[in-house]
């Protein structure tokens, strides 16, 4: 879901598969915060009790280059298993 806004800013949606452990959401949100980006929406469906992982959908607005940088930084986190 990428939609053009003004000044090259687009709406983006990322789906993450992450390790279900304390601090995971904090580390992910810190990536956005330190780069001056806000997360517009977060969706986290209930995880299976013994799976050890969970899915997170994030919606945010950024220029395409900043989206690429965010994906690169998220992919380096130990708690992130996959990004779509």
Descriptive key words:
ACT_dom, five-stranded antiparallel beta sheet, Alpha-Beta Plaits, 37% strand, alpha+beta
How are the SSEs placed, and which strands pair?
Layout (H helix, E strand, L loop, with lengths): L2 E2 L5 E10 L4 H11 L4 E5 L9 E10 L1 H12 L4 E4 L1
Please give a structural write-up.
This protein is α+β, with helices and mostly antiparallel strands. It has a single domain (3-83), classed as ACT domain (Alpha-Beta Plaits, 2-Layer Sandwich). It has 2 helices and 5 strands, in the order ββαββαβ. Strands 1, 2, 3, 4 and 5 form a 5-stranded antiparallel beta sheet that branches. The longest helix has 12 residues, at 64-75. The radius of gyration is 13 Å and the shape is elongated. The model has no long low-confidence stretch (mean pLDDT 92).
Structural class: alpha+beta
Element-level helix/strand string = EEHEEHE
Distance between the termini: 11 Å
| CATH level-3 fold name | Alpha-Beta Plaits
**CATH hierarchy class name:** Alpha Beta
Q: Give the full name of the CATH homologous superfamily.
A: ACT domain
How many DSSP H or I helices? Answer: 2
Question: What kind of assembly state do the chains in view correspond to?
Answer: single chain
Q: What level of helicity do the residues show?
A: 25-40%
| Beta strands, count | 5
């Amino acid at each position: 879901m990428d939609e053009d806004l003004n000044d090259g800013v687009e709406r983006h949606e990322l789906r993450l598969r992450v390790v279900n452990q304390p601090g995971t959401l904090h580390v992910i949100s810190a990536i956005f915060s330190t780069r001056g980006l806000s997360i517009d929406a977060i969706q986290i469906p209930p995880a299976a009790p013994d799976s050890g992982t969970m899915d997170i959908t994030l919606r945010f607005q950024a220029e395409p280059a900043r989206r690429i940088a965010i994906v690169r930084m998220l992919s380096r986190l130990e708690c992130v298993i996959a990004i779509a």
